[in-house]
Specification:
Radius of gyration: 25 Å
Order of helices and strands: HEHHHHEHHEEEEHEHEE
Number of domains: 2
Distance between the termini: 66 Å
Number of helices: 9
Strand content: 5-15%
Number of strands: 9
Oligomer: single chain
Largest sheet: 7 strands, antiparallel
């Protein structure tokens, strides 16, 4: 039974947003929005989230006004999501409550309903809709805040351009209307947006952006379609191969200027084999010498393609500024010990 309650909590948290991951995106993707200009993506994403939370965790009767205020605060925060102490606090609070306190309380109630029959402990006999799992109002407020702030943090990790006003409006109406028909409508919209509308929009924007980049001074075009500019030549006689391991500093951004990854921000360079990165990197880094600097404009088919990833949308072209600090020589194989013949 504990496993069942825990699984429900994990499913809801994992499905809180359409896509999330470990790479942070800058909050410039999220704006306040305006009442008179509806943003359907934000609205329906909010509706699906609140409706899904209530349906999956009906016993967690949060104060939705507190959650909404916390969510909007988090969405519009200018603090890096991985450096935001409030996000860390919210995630820890939620994990502890949903994974421990709630599981223990519901298990106890279920056991009491079973009358001590341990042979049926895996059967759910309590009605979660009739239960309020919170022990007091302060706990309700704390979890409501944590749930909202954590949601905002998750949204800041996605590659979507969202508006906080319309997300919160959809979120509140998902609770107020509690309509399965509206939920299905929202699901249909989001599926169409993610699988059709968004990829087409990104492909068109990326094509137009790369066409403008190609006109810039000193920008060259590789036969693969990769655009690049040598900003600092480096050692022309010492360039990586496709099998090399390199040590670099870099910053990556999308066509609209959103920085999605930066070793400079982390404060240290990174080493990786060129055989294990996106094709645009593998090809591009072979064009600059050790000690040099290059800017790469990578078409989507040489980046993350039609699928994208946690921080990059489908069919999205990317720009990277890269400094090649070193080319790491492979380690020499260990010498075999000679076995003395007797």
């Amino acid at each position: 039974m504990k496993k069942l309650f825990y699984t429900l909590a994990v499913v809801v948290c994992a499905a809180a947003v359409v896509s999330c991951g470990n790479d942070a995106t800058e909050t410039a993707r999220i704006s306040k929005g305006k009442k008179g200009q509806m943003d359907s993506l934000s609205y329906y994403l909010g509706y699906v989230n609140s409706f899904g939370f209530k349906a999956s965790l009906p016993d967690v009767k949060v104060d939705w006004n507190i959650s909404a205020d916390a969510c909007e605060e988090s969405m519009l925060s200018t603090v890096d999501v991985f450096e935001d102490e409030k996000c860390m606090q919210a995630a820890e609070t939620l994990q502890k409550f949903l994974g421990e306190a709630r599981v223990e309380r519901l298990t106890k109630l279920n056991d009491e309903k079973l009358g001590g029959d341990t042979t049926k402990r895996d059967q759910l006999v309590i009605d979660l809709n009739e239960i309020d799992v919170f022990e007091n109002e302060q706990e309700r407020k704390d979890i409501s805040w944590a749930m909202g702030y954590d949601m905002g943090g998750n949204l800041r990790r996605t590659p979507f351009k969202l508006q906080s006003y319309w997300f919160i409006k959809g979120w509140k109406e998902g609770i107020e209307k509690d309509s399965r028909i509206e939920f299905d409508k929202a699901q249909t919209f989001l599926h169409r947006y993610v699988t059709l509308t968004w990829p087409i929009q990104n492909a068109e924007k990326s094509k137009a952006w790369l066409a403008e980049v190609e006109k810039l001074p000193n920008v060259q075009k590789h036969e693969s379609g990769l655009l690049y500019r040598i900003d600092r030549e480096g050692d022309a006689n010492n360039k990586p191969t496709a099998e090399s391991t390199v040590k670099v500093d870099y910053e990556g951004n999308t066509g609209d200027g959103i920085v999605f990854d930066s070793s400079y921000k982390r404060g240290e360079p990174i080493e990786f084999p060129l055989s294990g990165v996106i094709p645009g990197w593998t090809i591009g880094m072979q064009l600059v010498g050790k000690g040099g600097q290059i800017t790469l404009w990578i078409p989507a088919h040489m980046a993350y393609g039609s699928e994208g990833n946690a921080a990059i949308g489908p069919n999205e072209a990317l720009q990277f500024k890269v400094e090649l600090h070193d080319i790491i020589a492979p380690e020499a194989p260990a010498a075999e010990e000679k076995v003395e013949k007797k």
